[in-house]
């Protein structure tokens, strides 16, 4: 299972905005964007001051990279998602985001059972969740309406999930999922639509990048 294992705060600095890759740290004064809002590297500060008008290709590339990094997907898998999105009826960009939102690790994060998508991915990979009553450890699993997700009975005794259950939900769940903290689970009500995704993403630039 390939994944990015480098420093994620550098990814936010490279894109010039918060991607919320480290949970609570992203909303604290320790956030890299709050302390060093310029690209990483030896000449990052100089590039920030000398940055001129970006080309169309540069804008498309940066948007594609931003979406990949938000959802924690590497290039090969992301390109496969795009090819599948093209084959589906409707807008390609909206289809792509809907597929990314339907990933199991993202659903776990959206339901509030993890502080970040990276943490949700780790929880799923370690087998802490059941999908439709069966244990799964595949973070990239695409869920459909009617699928149920819940924390495994044995995992609920772990400190993180126990405190989460006692504290209750601290992040609202999107309308396309139904969450039940009393049983530490939830259900997919429908496929996510573009209006359900509260991210500053211009998916059309991603489509233009792959349509070159």
Q: What can you see in these coordinates?
A:
The radius of gyration is 18 Å and the shape is globular. It has helices spanning 9-15, 32-35, 44-50, 56-71, 75-87, 92-101, 104-110, 117-125, 159-167, 203-210; strands spanning 129-131, 134-136, 148-151, 177-180, 185-188. It has 212 residues and is an alpha+beta fold. The mean pLDDT is 86. Among the domains are: 1-52, Ribosomal protein S4/S9, N-terminal domain (Ribosomal Protein S4 Delta 41, Chain A, domain 1); 103-188, Structural Genomics Hypothetical 15.5 Kd Protein In mrcA-pckA Intergenic Region, Chain A (Roll), CATH 3.10.290.10. The chain has a five-stranded antiparallel beta sheet, covered by helices on one side.
In short:
It contains ten helices and five strands; from the N terminus they run H-H-H-H-H-H-H-H-E-E-E-H-E-E-H.
Number of helices: 10
- Integer average pLDDT: 86
| Biggest β-sheet strands, sense, barrel | 5 strands, antiparallel
The CATH class label of the domain at 103-188 is Alpha Beta
Give the helix/strand layout.
Layout: H1 9-15, H2 32-35, H3 44-50, H4 56-71, H5 75-87, H6 92-101, H7 104-110, H8 117-125, E1 129-131, E2 134-136, E3 148-151, H9 159-167, E4 177-180, E5 185-188, H10 203-210
Antiparallel strand pairs: 1-2, 1-3, 3-5, 4-5
Helix pairs in contact: 4-10, 5-6, 6-10, 7-8
């Amino acid at each position: 299972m390939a994944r990015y294992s480098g420093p994620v705060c550098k990814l936010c600095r490279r894109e010039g905005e918060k991607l919320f890759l480290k949970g609570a740290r992203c909303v604290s004064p320790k956030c890299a964007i709050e302390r060093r809002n310029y690209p990483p590297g030896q000449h990052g500060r100089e590039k920030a001051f000398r940055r001129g008008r970006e080309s169309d290709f540069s804008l498309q590339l940066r948007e594609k990279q931003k979406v990949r990094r938000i959802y924690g997907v590497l290039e090969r898998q992301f390109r496969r998602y795009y090819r599948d999105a093209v084959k589906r009826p409707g807008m390609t960009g909206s289809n792509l985001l809907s597929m990314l939102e339907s990933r199991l690790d993202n659903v776990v994060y959206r339901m509030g059972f993890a502080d970040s998508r990276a943490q949700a991915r780790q929880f799923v990979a370690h087998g802490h969740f059941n999908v439709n009553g069966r244990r799964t450890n595949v973070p990239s699993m695409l869920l459909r309406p009617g699928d149920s997700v819940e924390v495994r009975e044995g995992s609920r005794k772990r400190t993180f999930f126990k405190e989460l259950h006692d504290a209750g939900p601290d992040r609202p769940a999107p309308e396309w999922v139904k969450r039940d903290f009393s049983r530490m689970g939830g259900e997919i009500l429908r496929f996510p639509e573009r209006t359900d995704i509260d991210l500053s993403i211009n998916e059309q630039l991603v489509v233009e990048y792959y349509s070159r």
